[in-house]
Write a structure and sequence with these properties.
The chain is mainly alpha-helical. It contains two helices and no strands. It has one domain.
Length: 106
């Protein structure tokens, strides 16, 4: 009986070790597959971000090199008009209230 139990115990340990090796092999394969898939997705995302960054940089350079002469001319014209209005208001005479019952201040 003792020898049967010992052989059963040894066989069970061997079966568990074999099962452990199978499961480790399976999980190693699955984690490697996930690692490869994740790596491919990350590489694709990085490439997409690089492309978007380059596109935005090119758009900025195009905007920076744009000709703003028309806009500068409009601003200069508006500044001249503002100066003319400012001088016109500075020379404007506002009549004083006489105090005879009917002025705006009363």
């Amino acid at each position: 009986m003792r020898s049967d139990f010992t052989s059963y115990k040894a066989q069970t340990r061997e079966d568990f070790d074999q099962l452990r090796r199978e499961l480790m092999s399976y999980t190693d394969k699955e984690t490697e597959d996930v690692k490869i898939t994740l790596s491919k997705r990350l590489d694709a995302a990085v490439e997409q971000l690089k492309y978007e960054g380059e596109r935005i940089r090119a758009e900025f350079e195009q905007f920076k090199n744009k000709d703003f002469k028309d806009l500068e001319a409009r601003v200069t014209a508006l500044e001249k008009k503002f100066l003319n209005l400012q001088s016109a208001f500075a020379n404007l005479k506002i009549p004083e209230s006489t105090g005879n019952g009917g002025g705006v201040s009363q």
